[in-house]
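Render this sequence as a predicted structure.
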Amino acid sequence: MGLRCSCGVRTNPISTTNVTLTFVDVEPREDRNGILTLTIDACADRPDQSTLTAFVDQSGLIPNRSFTFTATDFEFVACGLVSGPVDIECRVQLGGIGLVTGQTTLFDFTFDLRNPESPLSDILEQIVIVNFANSLERRELQPALTFFGCPPTP
């Protein structure tokens, strides 16, 4: 963003991982695997200038449920420290509303991203696109993200 950011996260320029999503907009609910590509530039000081795009590629599956989610409004970008499975992690939560390709309804969303003390990789803790799809599994993101504003570890 080029300006001061007291709390936020940015991809460099994208980050990817394999993900299992539960689609909650169909009955019965279905779990589907795909490749998630994230593009994020989010800052608590400038939510109106923040961006988040998530593309899930499921083109090898029938039916193809690939989609792009684009945040249209950020309600919060929040930073803090949390206990992870191994060590203390910097946590950046993003939330607001956005659009899914092919849909006209806005969906509430939350993304939970973590930066463990170990420098091996950053973590996608969860994605929730309310009434559409979610992933509550912990997945490594590659390449790593850039985190801003995490408090120093105790």
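Summary. The CA atoms of residues 55 and 124 lie 14 Å apart. The chain has no helices and eleven strands.
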